Amino acid sequence: MAVLKAAADRPPGVGARRLTIHYWSTPKLIMAADDGLEVSLAREHGPSDHKRLTVDTVITAIGYELNRSHCSCLALSNGSLSNERGRLLDNTGKPIKGLYAVGWSARGASGTIGTCRSEAERLTQVLAEDSARAPERQLTGSDGLAQILQARGHRYVTFQEWLQLEAMERARGTASGRSRIKFHTSAQMLAFLEQTFERRKSQG
Prior knowledge:
By secondary structure, the chain is α+β, with helices and mostly antiparallel strands. The chain has 3 domains: 22-59, no CATH class; 64-134, no CATH class; 141-204, no CATH class. Helix content is 38%, strand content 19%. It has helices at residues 2-9, 104-107, 113-132, 141-151, 159-175, 186-202; strands spanning 25-33, 36-43, 50-55, 76-77, 80-81, 83-84, 87-89, 95-100. The strands form 3 sheets. It has a 3-stranded antiparallel beta sheet, with no helix packed on it. A 3-stranded antiparallel beta sheet has the order 6-7-8, with no helix packed on it. Strands 4-5 form a two-stranded antiparallel sheet. The N and C termini lie far apart (62 Å).
């Protein structure tokens, strides 16, 4: 609270963005508007009032809880995948070789980006430990993974293709005065990549 009060008391600075926090407010309705989206907020504590905000984007960040409709073949515990240090466990409590979880899927909807980052670092150590115990397995890196995906007929995105997607999202954003405008679905991303490939192919 001391940090928030100090920020509130600080004189406004010069910048193109302003952060406004609506405490104790719950979004009740999201509707399409002529110039974006309109969000209806209801105040849950203190004076009862409603606000309507016109926004460009709405991002949900309320977490999720896994259940049988999401996962029918792996053991669940308190809304997350049963695991030990990230190693997934079967219904008898034994580790499943080669399967891991991290983040909300491993501990439930709690924590921050920093929490996920530190957990990912710890899981990397677990992966290194497991790899060291399996010297007989040939590790072929990204090339080996590409061969497996190709053999199974999966369409995957290479790093060079990701760079193309990154450049296009930034270009679309620049045209609208934003940092980027993202593709909304995998189908849109793949369609763009196929169009880019066909255009380059036709150009020789």
